[in-house]
Design a protein that fits this description.
With 422 residues, this protein is an alpha/beta fold. The chain is built from twelve helices and 21 strands. It has two domains: 154 residues, Lyase, Ornithine Decarboxylase, Chain A, domain 1 (Beta Barrel), CATH 2.40.37.10; 257 residues, TIM Barrel (Alpha-Beta Barrel), CATH 3.20.20. The strands form three sheets. Strands 4, 14, 15, 16, 17, 18, 19, 20 and 21 form a nine-stranded mixed beta sheet that branches. An eight-stranded parallel beta barrel has the order 5-6-7-8-9-11-12-13, surrounded by five helices. Helix 3 crosses helix 4, helix 5 crosses helix 6 and helix 8 packs parallel to helix 9. The chain binds ligand LLP.
């Protein structure tokens, strides 16, 4: 297993996390190459037998060394900025397996995508279509475009990361989609090739996907009826992962979890496949979290313990600048001691050093008793972890290491004071 206790000591593959701390310090993002690959391959295999491209959504994690692992194993790339396009190219993703998404692409980014000959742009408005057409004309290129349609489907996820209701900024409203396709087909230097939907992120039920598949197949049929040929459907990403009780051990408290049975990515895909298969389209998908979330953890050290009459705090050396999800979404991450030395539990807040009350990783969390200088692992932080790291409070960005069996490689050195002061 990628993450397990051996003699009450936590290992990532064959490397004890205490060793990583000694060598590289904390806060430190640690990734398992084996787990990353296993996740990607399981997902990709769910579509074997059907023409498809599994793109990785770089927004979840854009470390070039991690991207290289995916690119080498046949993944495509879903990028949302010129920066991500650059990193995707550097990692070796072939342009014909790249899609460029995003509600506000700038002209220079469109130009970059066209010059790189990416597979297609997922377009979110008629004005964007017009701009791409103008840029493509100027460069004497043909831009392949898929239209992102907002299907008005409730993803039932956190409101900040649900994206497919009509009040959201994303996509072209379903009611206007036929007209938008008609405009796209009439503009010069555009080739309409597909339809795109993305429902949101951390989706834990199958129903929104079933609804999306039906929506897509109906739309494809109607468009074809209107003489517009659609060669692919892109179903976006969004597959939810488990955050609670990820690691189990008799010394760890069990969390109440109302989501014991989150479908696997393969199960999500299975619910859509019969309907999508009928369209005869090539299928594209863009998972981020399901590929990399549980392949990463954030290692941190307890700096101080602090108690008052009503509260207990563990102050750790990672802060909201290293991992923003708890502060931003009140997101839950399991936090475990690297060494289990006692089976005694206590209730505590786990907080960072940043000067904000919102700088917390857990509140009133039942935890094994922990001492000053103990190491903690904040689990399932491979997705939307480092990518949201900042220099807030002028703290240095954390380092990242990649574990493969008993080997460890620094894939991003810790930022230095000199770099900060530039
Ligand atoms: N495709 C599009 C168009 C997207 O907007 C996203 C994510 C994905 C694919 C990948 O979704 P995934 O498979 O990772 O769920 N920062 C938030 C998540 C934001 C998701 C943004 N869009 C978090 O930490 O939960």
């Amino acid at each position: 297993m990628a993450l397990e206790y051996r003699n009450n000591e936590l290992y990532c593959e064959d490397v004890p996390l205490t060793e990583l701390h000694e060598e590289f310090g904390t806060p430190l993002y640690v990734y398992s190459r084996t787990k990353l690959l296993e996740n990607f391959q399981a997902l990709d295999a769910a579509l074997s037998g059907i023409d498809h491209v599994t793109c990785f959504a770089l927004k979840a994690n854009s470390n070039v060394q991690l991207l290289k692992v995916l690119a080498e194993h046949g993944a495509g790339a879903d990028v949302v900025s010129g920066g991500e396009l650059l990193l995707a190219r550097k990692a070796g993703f072939p342009p014909e397996r790249m899609v460029f998404a995003g509600v506000g692409k700038r002209e220079d980014e469109l130009e970059f995508g066209l010059k790189e000959d990416i597979f297609c742009f997922n377009v979110e408005s008629v004005q964007e279509l017009q701009l791409i057409s103008r840029v493509a004309l100027r460069l004497q290129k043909t831009a392949r475009v898929a239209l992102r349609i907002n299907p008005d489907i409730n993803a039932e996820s956190h409101p900040y990361i649900s994206t497919a209701l009509k009040e959201h900024k994303f996509g072209i409203p379903a009611g206007e989609s036929r007209e938008a396709f008609r405009v796209a087909a009439s503009l010069p230097n555009l080739e309409v090739c597909g339809v795109h939907v993305h429902l949101g992120s951390q989706i834990v039920r199958k129903e929104p996907y079933t609804a999306a598949a039906t929506f897509l197949s109906t739309l494809v049929r109607e468009l074809r009826g209107a003489g517009i040929s659609i060669a692919h459907v892109d179903i976006g990403g969004g597959f939810g992962v488990r955050y609670k009780n990820v690691l189990r051990h008799e010394g760890l408290p069990e969390e109440q979890d109302d989501q014991e049975s989150i479908p696997s990515p393969a199960q999500f895909i299975d619910t859509m496949l019969p309907v999508l298969r009928e369209t005869g389209c090539r299928i594209w998908l863009e998972p981020g979290r399901a590929v990399i979330a549980d392949a990463g953890l954030l290692l941190t050290q307890v700096l101080y313990r602090k108690e008052n009459r009503s509260k207990r705090f563990l102050i750790v050396d990672a802060g909201m600048n290293d991992l923003l999800r708890p502060s931003l979404y009140n997101a839950y991450h399991q936090i475990v001691p690297v060494r289990i030395e006692t089976y005694e539990h206590e209730k505590t807040d786990i907080v960072g050093p940043v000067c904000e009350t919102g700088d917390f990783f857990a509140r009133d969390r039942q935890m094994p008793k922990t001492k000053q200088r103990d190491l903690l692992a904040i689990l399932t932080t491979g997705a939307y972890g480092f990518v949201n790291a900042s220099n807030y409070n002028s703290r240095l960005r954390p380092a990242e290491v990649l574990v493969n069996g008993d080997r460890v490689r620094v894939i991003r050195p810790r930022q230095t004071m000199n770099e900060l002061a530039q």
